[in-house]
């Protein structure tokens, strides 16, 4: 089904492009295919008589990128599909169009139309400001993988900064593990029955504006988003009581991000203010009284602030050793609601600057309100030969505190080895 | 305004070249101290490289370890000359394939630290990075970032050492001591040929003052009738026996690049 759609789309894209401008078009194909082996260190937390959560997952993945470029790159069409096959969790076997977009530009403007991805923000431990693309959560629990988002994006480059306006037709639901997968709550999340605050449901058109500018050593950004929240709230629908139903509310979000780059120091700050409709907050208060949701809904603010300091060539090596510290704040004090409400992230990024581009990232997050809640991550990568990248990831979520939202992942510790072949 | 300054500068260079084909070869060094002689030679080298405007090139970098094992990096570089400041540069990586599409934007400055951004295509993220890392290896090679930045008088103090023959050419031998305390070198010794003031060879001395690397520049080609560019640069690390060869396979000037092509907002579309 997915494959068929992809083929149709690619044929469409190529015929659209190649027909009128065949003589001037340049075509380039690249991408990767990968194999992943993930081993969980503990039995699933929610194993029962009917269901046992995966103890080991194998994945085959592919992400080709096809680029047609016309008139010296004045017009570019990019098609980047993605697919994963997982041996255990049917929800993790999935495909997505990461990009299918047309780009054109002039001296002081740029237009992108189609499915695409944007990134906003500066911090490392969480990405509060970055709200345009939905998280592809089945890919990895760190939320760094994103789904393609339909958009029309107009950028204006001016002396006073870069102004970008977005029209976002069409909403993407977050992906969640199935009942045999990991990184899920006690009840399975039913992604086939998502509910929406907006009458148009996933056809609601969202809008966003972002201004960004560089003032000497400071890179600043201000953003506004209005539309369907990418973060679902989970509730028990009495029509479907054995599962959790995702609910996507309408939000208004203001964001700010600043990075000061001062010698070896990068000082980073992100903050958001998110508000909901009054009627929705009242509805959720009632649901909470009935015990159908664990969380109430309130307007809130959140922030991440910290620094990254890098030692260059220490101890007579060629290494770069970066030290990162970030503090995460959320005005919602309930540990059931927000993950980063009063947490500290400590990390180190080591680049060995060798021919194989070897790197190690170590990270540790401690919840200051819950002594028993912390996460530990290691990410290592190096190149084998010319075209193969080896990735080793270790993720150890630790939370013995049942009142904390992280406790549902407590036994999902894993080690993952991945090989990606690039072409 | 900038255009006018550039035009004046290039006119001045052109006149200087026309009137002084012989005078250059006999740059008057008599009666000057060794430091003044070194500075005069460096100024002449810089003066001959003003007014080139913009350029685009394709480069293949071959890394070799002490066993002779090779690793290849291919990249494209675009440069824009900025009057009275350092150049702007954009580097787009094509291989290794896993870093394909990664782009590096650099605004170099004479009197303050450079501004640098890195575009990571997998995340679609543009990151401002610290430019403090002058002495670190560029893409795992034997070239440090500072070896690849544009030549500016303000970056060194100079001293004329001798006249010697290198690569079969009569050369000025000059000592260059970096003024930046973050430089990885205590000193450099450079040989410039007396006819065209082109770098022929550079020795780099590390922080412990021992010989670290030697750069040999060759295959010089003349562009726009007055700008010499080495199409081959070999860097040998004497301490590790690793080496890096940098070959320019394509180079063009007056490519129509503008200031707006060097912007962190448009870095995302660099291909």
Q: Could you walk me through the main structural features you see in this protein, from its secondary elements to its overall organization?
A:
The complex is a heterodimer of chains A (423) and B (271). With 423 residues, chain A is mainly β. Chain A has a single domain (2-422), classed as Porin (Beta Barrel), CATH 2.40.160. Chain A is built from 2 helices and 21 strands. In chain A, the strands form 2 sheets. Chain A has an 18-stranded antiparallel beta barrel. In chain A, strands 8-12-11 form a 3-stranded mixed beta sheet, with no helix packed on it. In chain A, a hairpin with a 2-residue loop joins strand 9 (205-215) and strand 10 (218-228). The radius of gyration of chain A is 22 Å and the shape is globular. Chain B is α+β, with helices and mostly antiparallel strands and 271 residues long. Chain B has a single domain, classed as Lipoprotein localisation LolA/LolB/LppX (outer membrane lipoprotein receptor (LolB), chain A, Clam), CATH 2.50.20.10. A 13-stranded antiparallel beta sheet of chain B has the order 6-5-4-3-2-1-13-12-11-10-9-8-7, with helices on one face. Chains A and B meet through loops of A and strand 6 of B.
Keywords summarizing the entry:
heterodimer, A: 423 residues, mainly beta, Porin, 18-stranded antiparallel beta barrel, 3-stranded mixed β-sheet, 2 helices, 21 strands, 50% strand, globular, disordered N terminus, B: 271 residues, alpha+beta, outer membrane lipoprotein receptor (LolB), chain A, 13-stranded antiparallel β-sheet, 4 helices
How would you concisely characterize the structure shown here?
The complex is a heterodimer of chains A (about 425) and B (about 270). Chain A is mostly beta strands.
List the helices and strands and how they pair.
The complex is a heterodimer of chains A (423) and B (271).
Chain A: H1 2-21, E1 26-40, E2 56-70, E3 75-86, E4 94-105, E5 109-116, E6 149-158, E7 161-169, E8 195-196, E9 205-215, E10 218-228, E11 233-235, E12 245-248, E13 250-262, E14 265-275, H2 278-289, E15 300-312, E16 320-330, E17 342-351, E18 359-367, E19 373-384, E20 388-399, E21 414-422
Parallel strand pairs in A: 8-12
Antiparallel strand pairs in A: 1-2, 1-21, 2-3, 3-4, 4-5, 5-6, 6-7, 7-9, 9-10, 10-13, 11-12, 13-14, 14-15, 15-16, 16-17, 17-18, 18-19, 19-20, 20-21
Chain B: H1 2-19, H2 21-25, H3 34-47, E1 54-64, E2 70-80, E3 88-95, E4 103-107, E5 115-120, E6 125-129, H4 145-148, E7 156-166, E8 169-178, E9 187-193, E10 199-205, E11 211-223, E12 227-237, E13 243-253
Antiparallel strand pairs in B: 1-2, 1-13, 2-3, 3-4, 4-5, 5-6, 7-8, 8-9, 9-10, 10-11, 11-12, 12-13
